[in-house]
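Retro notes
What went well: the complex prediction finally ran end to end.
Inputs used:
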Amino acid sequence: MEQGPGGAAAGPGGAGLLLPLSDAEQQRYSELFSLCCSPAPEGGSAPAPAAGGSKVGDLFRASQLPADTLHQITELCGAKRVGYFGPAQFYVALKLIAAAQSGLPIRIESIKSELPLPRFMALKNDNEMRYGNAAEIHGVKFQIPHATLEKNSFKRADEGDKKQETKSPPVSPMCSPPASPSNYQRILLNYGYGKSRSGLEQQHGVPYEARHSTNLQDGPATGNYGSKSALVHSSLSRSLSVEREPQDSSNYPDDPWRITEEQREYYINQFKSLQPDLNSFISGSVAKNFFTKSKLPIPELSHIWELSDVDCDGALTLPEFCAAFHLIVARKNGYPLPDTLPETLLPDYLQPASLKPKRDCALLDSYSESLPVSQQTRDFNRTEVRKLPEDYSYIKEFTLVDHLAIHTYLWNFLVGYLFLSLPFVHLTVSLIVQESNTLKARPRSRSYSSTSIEDAMKKGEEPPTPPPRPQKAHSRASSLDLNKIFQQNTQAVKSGWLPPPPALPPRPFVSQTEQVSEIELQPQMNRAPSQTEGSSPTRKEILLTQPPSKPIRRKFRSENQMLENQELTPTSSMTSSLPAVKPHLPAQKQSSKQKRAIQTAIRKNKEANAVLARLNSELQQQLKEVHKERIALETQLEQLRPVTVL
Amino acid sequence: MAVCIAVIAKENYPLYIQSITTENELKFHYTVHTSLDVVDEKISAMGKALVDQRELYLGLLYPTEDYKVYGYVTNSKVKFVMVADSSNTALRDNEIHSMFQKLHNSYIDVMCNPFYNPGDCIHSRAFDNMVTSMMMQVC
């Protein structure tokens, strides 16, 4: 009878268990066990380290196995025999659950081998325990992923949103063992699935639900999520971040090869940029140039092409293009390329779905059709830049042109940023460079995470910019600090382009309100218009005529400094001078102190000026380089053109 | 049974060569190399005017005691050489012919990949799979 060996295995306790447990399994089982244990175990006469029977029962039910299987497992693991779920019994039971879910018979022998972790389809254990019924409901809802598309699209929204929200460094460890992405997905999905969903609900309840009108589950799901949201946050970020990667595009567990709605929209837009007719195809050379910008190695790109060009005609139709793009995105995220095209990426699979976003993009279509192609794509970039992912193929041209145009905006941003991070000037410089490169990319990053990957991918003509996703390689300045800073700024920018500059100034402004409120206001407000020349002469006059009273002196000083700022640099000096001003406020205003303050302000202004000048020269350099590259590529193309025709 | 399949470029360097067993790989490489002479001989024998009419399938290039070597040339002077085991007498000519057709089709698919530059070694997994299946299937 199996209970004998089961008992023998379970008897000595966890340490002496005969069944081998991998590290992941150990961790998972101990987590589950502690979860089952900690909330007031109802073991009754059982010793302390035992899982509560009811909680264990809930957990087992959440594994979605039939009841008699669970009975079998309970018997086998020895719990019935000993009367409680000790750690050994619990672990054996978990392993048996995993075996059962893998389709193996419930035998002790079957758990000796390597098994995937047991899947508990409900929310993570806290929720399972406390909302046993609700958890099961959810488990039912989401365990049948292949049955309802609505759920999937909703999950898609979730995952897509999650990806945007939390792109944290833990992703990179995820990339290292890509050999078992499915395993990870399973683990992380189950671990943080509900949490991420509910957390996501809180963050993006309305916009994404509105976006995915096909989701019938939104209503009830929302209600359920809301109830769980409070429980979720404890490990939300961790599970979210780790979960994010495997769910790159997956709605279902274990499926990174499913394209989400947002991704599909993005791919279609990119397709349009290359080939306005959605029913036609992209030629091989055009696609090659486009995908080469992704900076993936050529053999991999070649393989991706092989996979995605199903009809082997040397051209990509829209579904083929989406599949190829998706594979590139997945590869960029560290997934190993499959040997055959996953079913969800087949053109047949994608074809009917690819027509759907046309409805969503109706605005775009009408817009695009009304314009000639070239202008269309340009305008498309500019006007739609806030809403849609950018057309990366045009980035080369646009950023060159727009560099100057956005420099003025950059000043504001840079000024505020410089103030914050004067010690980190070097970071700022590179950040600003990236900012300039990714100004258009920001709305993308807001809406969709993998677009930020495309950022780095497609800006092949100029230094790639760091996408909000931290795991992306940042060619220009790859540092996590930069990412965090960038993310901070993207958060600020998400609401719009303008907020960052006004957002930063209030800080010193606020800090000084205690001392002088209105006078400080003036310098702050003056900062914005400080760049205008007109105000400076008038202020100068005011400076000269002002009597040196305390508040006015401050104004004098700050205005003086502001003037200097205007002459030297934009408003950064204002805020930098104000803190310098502050320490002097309590003391008696003496001209020497004023002078010192002015001098420090001058120094800081000069520093800022130098930084900005350096930045400017760097950007100019970039511009030149990109020009040169472009010319070189064009000449190359000309040279190669006759050769390629075999 | 095909024990070795090779794709030779126009300039007579191998784009792809794969043997079913690894111990005699070098021998097969040598065999393929020497067979190129025969291929060139057959091509030139056709004459310049007959390029259009030239059969792509060259047939048996030469037999040895252990195996037979078959050749096939594409219009772009890319040669396919197949070394087949002599013990498999059931292998008829038209079967070899069809195998070459499959090879040619796969080669065309490789060429359609814009990331493949003509003249590079062939690293396509699809091509590998096809060749492996051919080597397995025929035996």
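What we learned: Chain B touches chain A at residues 76, 108-109, 112-116, 118, 123-126, 129 (CB under 8 Å).
What to try next: split runs per interface for comparison.
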